[in-house]
Write a structure and sequence with these properties.
Strand content: 15-25%
Shape: globular
Distance between the termini: 50 Å
Radius of gyration: 23 Å
Helix content: 40-55%
CATH architecture of the largest domain: 2-Layer Sandwich
Number of strands: 12
Structural class: alpha+beta
Length: about 475
Amino acid sequence: MSTKVTVMAAAVLATMAAAPLAGAADFRLPAFDTVTLPNGLTVYLMERHEVPLISVRAVVKAGAVNDAKQPGLSNLTGDALLLGSKAHNKTAIDQAFDFRGARLAGGAGTEASTVQANFARADSATLLPLFAEIIQQPSFDEAELVKLRDRKVNGLKQAKEAPRNVVGNYYKAMLFGTSPYAIPASGTVSSVSALKQSDVQGYYQHYYRPDNAAIIVVGDFQAAEMRKQIESLFGAWKASGPALPQQDNGKVQADKARVWLVNKPDAIETTFLIGGVGIARNDPDYVPLQVLNTIVGGRFTSWLNDELRVNSGLTYGARSEFATLSQTGTFAISSFTALPKTEAALALAHKTYQRLWDKGIDKATLESAKAYVKGQFPPRYETSEQLAGLLGDMYASKVGREQIDNFMKDVDSLTPERAKALVDKHFPRTKLQTVLVGKADAIRDIAKTYGEVTELQISADGFQPQ
């Protein structure tokens, strides 16, 4: 390990140690400047001087939702940005960051692509220009791109051996049908295998443009100086063609109870997801729903985990989650169980979930969850890297800082009466959507009790019925 790595690791620990131990109720998002450059690029600058570190992040509003004809293209493009720039090949860039104990990473998700770097303040003059090159002048070296694509294809071929790796893709495909939100970020074996250098270059030219992106810098710098540096490095970046239109990425389809039974003939377990429509990331009820989900399946002592793991021994774990997107979201209960226990596990999961309506949430349970969530919240946003990630999410999903600043107040104000209203409003109770991945011959009759069944073969390419 280099001296720089050791120094940076110690600095990260120092950041955590130096974080103020103010009462949880006093937590607010640190001040930051927002600037829009003449070329349309959004810039966030947040000074944090506790340790000499800087975290920089580029966020482009381009992801799987833009892959309608070529699933996996955004993911390949996002990773391919790290294959080198026109002035520096991959080896030179890797060495520049590694030698200084810095970190460089990238990738693409459902709606956004990100490149991030973390480095010491002293290395900013060297590494920030390289970061700018990667964003604006990627080489997409063909030989490196082919190797990257082939690695992704091999990963896709192996992924379905472990149903927990892919059950979420089936769930999104089921809930969103043929709309953009149904497109798997990783793509499929056939779609990724067909991707070429020209596809990546075309995707980059269309979506990677300053008026569709943000640069976020958090750490030990002076905002005025950093703004000048960002303007110098990114001011000449130009967008070609008209601004990109806002697209409708789809809504959850849940007009009746349905089951997708994904047949894995050699399975000895059944993996399942149960749920329906959720909320968008900027929904005004986002914060209180984190508290309520904590009770249902958001922590080790949740109802679901207690019943399915601790009390019955039907599984090693069970949870629930509101998975948010910019325009909507999903809710799901998730778990897995030994094949012979499938019927019991599904029945208990449904029974436990129905406690939300049958018994409701009492004050003691609610207060416990509120304390837990408040204790978990501040540590999520202590380091510069975490804060840069938060600002990136806020940009991509149009989240206002008031959601963060009012977090503690929103948690504290949650009463049993308000909890009941939120449960009725946001937790899907009827017409539930279910994905089961397992041995179809053994669980087909069980599946029929939960809705209209559609069977798929896990060996088939992709995640939609053939």
